């Protein structure tokens, strides 16, 4: 029951109580619904059909959002929802990486459905408090704090009384307020977005856990697609959850011995092999900065180049020295991979926190590459300061970096002037200017607000009002479907181009990271090989999001004999682990094919959801040309030996007497044709038609031929 209280009477706007009950075989068997228009709170049952078709996590979130919106709903309509879900395996402590949430909403960037995963303690606490998903609709009149108390079975909506504006202060204040003593703080997780999320479309949501050694709240981020903008548009200041009754089996698993069997195997591998492989426990994902540079894959100067002589200034050795070692760095209990590194007591030099020492979460690889090489900034102090402010202000660092890099190239090309930028000299390498842009985003003023609307918005503005050449800015604007590309140079990896272009939500590497397999190891020589990889790997990444798992334990550590197996990229031993933990949690006999079928159902449903919202036709799956090849003469000439050789071998023309522009034209024609052929192969493998629309036959095969789904598919066919 919801008890509403008038604003004049109390800061308490709504009070809802519910019955506490244990999780059963991975499911809480209900979801929590909140409407901020009228402050109503209710619970909904999780049906068997939901479990059978949508599994959990991302699947549940997509289904709840689908039922809440129409094809006409916009991201900032009250009807749009913010849905946060866990998954049946989420919350186990015997297997690493089991604390992930998936956030689903209509995106202010893509104007379509997006999902973004995030670590921290929120997802497990939500489940143990009694809910498989949290569904928030409507808009509050004023800033509110939502409090879910899993200790007592109570949910409240409270009027915000905090003076804090940014996430690191919001999180620490609320952790103390609702947690009380040291033991209580361990049972608190906070979702928030800082003040920049009110002014930009590239906004993130921070998810916390309390670090018992550092004595403060730490962050992970749901960054992609702008969910933080939706969060603040609904006037949510924070969502706080409390659950203090932790134990080894809160998931109600069917066979704990089988879960432990998988956990013991991978934990032994991590303990013995991590130092020899990727050093995730010492450096995290930042371990690959110099690797990407070596293979010409590190985005540099808005993806013009793939390496730089100054990369050593921001490589893993630098971050290894900066990270605090010997402290627990896992973002959920029991995660032996412990890759969530941070820099303690970092001195801030600019902005509202200048003169203070703060905790910086990261940098991870994406932050180091984006805030570093891609904007030409090789000053580790500025990388870390940008990292800190992106997080606390609530700005996705990947999108921010690409937006700044795009603006810098436009400035150097003469499209932008100081008059446009408010006096900022936006040249590559000007880290101080990048810092000023992030501060402007937070203040809601200046050119920073324009940059904060995303690359797609800037392209349209620069053409419409600044006289930019539309073809040029489209070629160099590194976004697809409205979302900025994550930080890998894909010019020589057709498979990774497809991994970005044909991803359901937009170009994020968490769907298909094939660049190393394709470009470095040459394991995908044919279109058939690439298409198979662009089916198989997205299915596993989807599966993790259905169950509340992190992808890193899958392939960022591998068994000692993995290279001797038939398909080492698939890390089949770890795939076997997933069958064990799924069966162990749910009690259902599980084969690999069962897990892939779970993913295929939801993946196709998300594709149909995108069609429903207007993303019909293969043009939506096409990357900007810089993701495929050189746009400018300077790019071509920087690798002219490589490109000239390709013209001879692949295009079968002699480049000797051709101008650079002529060479570029021939190379472009070849690469665009190759991408079209790849699209055909991938669509066929996925069971989609030539326009990327799932066939009714495929939907029927998956059991996803629901009337409302088939109707969308038929309507989409009529639009092509």
Strand content: 5-15%
Lateral strand order in the biggest sheet: 1-2-10-9-14-11-12-13
Radius of gyration: 24 Å
Shape summary: globular
Number of DSSP E strands: 18
CATH architecture of the largest domain: 4-Layer Sandwich
Please bin the fraction of helical residues: 40-55%
What is the count of DSSP helices, taking H or I runs of 4+ residues? 28
Mean pLDDT: 95
Please identify the top-level CATH class of the largest domain: Alpha Beta
Q: What's the domain count?
A: 3
- Let me know the CATH homologous superfamily of the largest domain: Aldehyde ferredoxin oxidoreductase, N-terminal domain
The major beta sheet can be summarized as: 8 strands, mixed
Under CATH, the topology of the largest domain can be stated as Aldehyde Ferredoxin Oxidoreductase,  A, domain 1
Through-space gap between termini: 48 Å
Strand-pairing-aware structural class: alpha+beta
Q: Any low-confidence stretches, pLDDT <50, length ≥5?
A: 1-9
Question: Which terms summarize this structure?
Answer:
720 residues; alpha+beta; Aldehyde Ferredoxin Oxidoreductase,  A, domain 1; Aldehyde Ferredoxin Oxidoreductase Protein, subunit A, domain 2; Aldehyde Ferredoxin Oxidoreductase Protein, subunit A, domain 3; 3 domains; 8-stranded mixed β-sheet; 6-stranded mixed β-sheet; 28 helices; 18 strands; 41% helix; 13% strand; disordered N terminus
Give an account of the 3D structure.
Helices cover 41% and strands 13% of the residues. It has 720 residues and is of the alpha+beta class. The longest helix is centred in the last third of the chain and has 27 residues. The chain is globular and about 80 Å long.
């Amino acid at each position: 029951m919801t008890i509403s209280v008038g604003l004049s009477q109390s800061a308490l706007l709504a009070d809802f109580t519910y019955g506490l009950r244990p999780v059963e075989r991975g499911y809480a068997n209900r979801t929590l619904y909140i409407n901020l228009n009228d402050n109503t709170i209710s619970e909904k049952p999780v049906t068997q059909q939901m479990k059978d078709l949508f599994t959990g996590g991302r699947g549940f979130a997509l289904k709840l959002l689908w039922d809440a919106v129409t094809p006409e709903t916009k991201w900032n309509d009250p009807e749009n929802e913010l849905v946060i879900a866990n998954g049946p395996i989420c919350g186990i402590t015997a297997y690493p990486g089991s604390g992930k949430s998936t956030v689903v909403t209509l995106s202010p960037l893509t104007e379509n459905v997006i999902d973004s995963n995030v670590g921290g303690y929120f997802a497990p606490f939500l489940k143990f408090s009694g809910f498989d998903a949290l569904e928030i609709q409507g808009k509050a009149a004023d800033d509110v704090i939502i409090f879910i108390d899993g200790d007592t079975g109570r949910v409240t909506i409270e009027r915000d009384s905090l003076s804090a504006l940014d996430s690191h202060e919001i999180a620490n204040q609320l952790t103390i307020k609702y947690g009380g003593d040291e033991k209580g703080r361990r049972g608190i997780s906070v979702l928030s977005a800082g003040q920049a999320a009110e002014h930009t479309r590239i906004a993130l949501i921070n998810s916390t856990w309390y670090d018992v050694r550092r004595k403060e709240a730490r962050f992970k981020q749901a960054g992609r697609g702008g969910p933080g903008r939706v969060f603040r548009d609904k006037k949510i200041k924070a969502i706080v959850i409390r659950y203090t009754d932790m134990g080894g089996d809160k998931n109600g698993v069917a066979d704990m011995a089988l879960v432990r069997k998988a956990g013991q195997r991978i934990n032994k591998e991590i303990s013995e092999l991590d130092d020899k492989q990727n050093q995730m426990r010492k450096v995290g994902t930042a371990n690959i900065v110099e690797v990407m540079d070596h293979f010409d894959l590190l985005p540099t100067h808005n993806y013009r180049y793939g390496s730089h002589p100054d990369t050593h200034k921001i490589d893993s050795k630098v971050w290894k020295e900066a990270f605090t070692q010997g402290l627990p760095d896992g973002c959920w209990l029991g995660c032996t991979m412990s890759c969530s590194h941070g820099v303690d007591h970092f001195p801030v030099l600019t902005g509202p926190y200048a003169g203070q020492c703060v905790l910086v979460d990261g940098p991870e690889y994406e932050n180091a590459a984006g805030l570093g090489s891609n904007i030409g900034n090789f000053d580790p102090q500025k990388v870390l300061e940008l990292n800190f402010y992106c997080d606390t202000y609530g700005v996705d660092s990947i999108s921010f970096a690409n937006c700044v890099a795009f603006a810098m190239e436009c400035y150097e090309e003469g499209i932008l002037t100081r008059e446009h930028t408010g006096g900022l000299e936006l040249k590559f390498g000007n880290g101080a200017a990048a810092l000023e842009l992030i501060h402007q985003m937070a203040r809601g003023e200046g050119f920073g607000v324009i940059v904060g609307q995303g690359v797609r918005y800037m392209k349209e503005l620069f053409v419409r009002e600044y006289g930019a050449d539309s073809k040029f800015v489209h070629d160099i604007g590194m976004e697809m479907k409205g979302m900025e590309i994550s930080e890998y140079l894909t010019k020589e990896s057709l498979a990774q181009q497809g991994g970005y272009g044909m991803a359901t939500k937009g170009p994020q590497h968490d769907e298909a990271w094939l660049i190393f397999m394709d470009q470095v190891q040459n394991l995908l020589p044919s279109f058939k090989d690439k298409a198979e990889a662009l089916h198989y790997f997205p299915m596993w990444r989807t599966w993790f999001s259905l169950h509340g798992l992190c992808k890193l334990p899958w392939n960022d550590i591998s068994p000692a004999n993995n290279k001797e197996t038939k398909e080492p990229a698939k890390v089949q031993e770890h795939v076997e682990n997933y069958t064990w933990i799924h069966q162990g949690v749910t009690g259902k006999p599980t084969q690999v094919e069962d897990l892939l079928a779970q993913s295929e159902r939801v993946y196709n449903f998300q594709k149909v959801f995108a069609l429903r919202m207007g993303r019909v036709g293969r043009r939506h799956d096409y990357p900007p040309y810089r993701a495929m090849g050189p746009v400018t003469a300077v790019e071509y000439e920087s690798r002219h030996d490589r490109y000239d050789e390709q013209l001879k071998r692949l295009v079968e023309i002699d480049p000797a007497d051709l101008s650079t522009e002529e060479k570029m034209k021939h190379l472009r024609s070849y690469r665009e044709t190759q991408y079209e052929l790849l699209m055909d192969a991938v669509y066929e493998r996925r069971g989609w038609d030539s326009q990327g629309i799932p066939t009714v036959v495929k939907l029927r095969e998956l059991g996803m031929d629901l009337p409302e789904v088939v109707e969308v598919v038929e309507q989409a066919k009529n639009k092509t």
